[in-house]
Structure prediction request, 115 residues.
Amino acid sequence: MVVTPRPFDRTANTWKDGTIAFHRCAAWRTLAEHVADSLKKGSRVVASGRMRQHDWTNEQGEKRSMLAVEVDEIGASIRFTTVNINAKPATNGAAGGDPWVKTSTGVSADAEPPF
Prediction:
C-alpha cells in the first residue's frame, strides 16, 4: 500500500505531493481472495489492521526485520467515487461469519444473540 500525503502549498496555491511511504500488507483467506478480485493498482482504499514487525536471520547470518500491516478490514474509499457492493455467498452459514447478517438460513438481526 502506498501512502502519499498531499499538503496544500499556499504560496504556489496548489496541492503538492508529500513524501511517499510504502507499506507491506498481508491479507489472508477469503479477505485476500476478495482483495484480489476487487482492487487493482491505484485503487484508493481504507484499511484497518495491526502493524507487525517480523524478524529473521538470512543465509549469511545477518539479522533482518520488516514491518507489515496485517489487514483485518479493507474497502474502497468512496470519497471521490462510488462503488457497487456484491455480496459473496457464505461458506459457513452466515455471511462472512457474521451471525447478524440475514442469510439463506434465516439468521438475522432479529434472531436471538449467538452468545
Remarks:
- Residues 94 and 106 are 9 Å apart (CA to CA).
- The helical segments are 29-38.
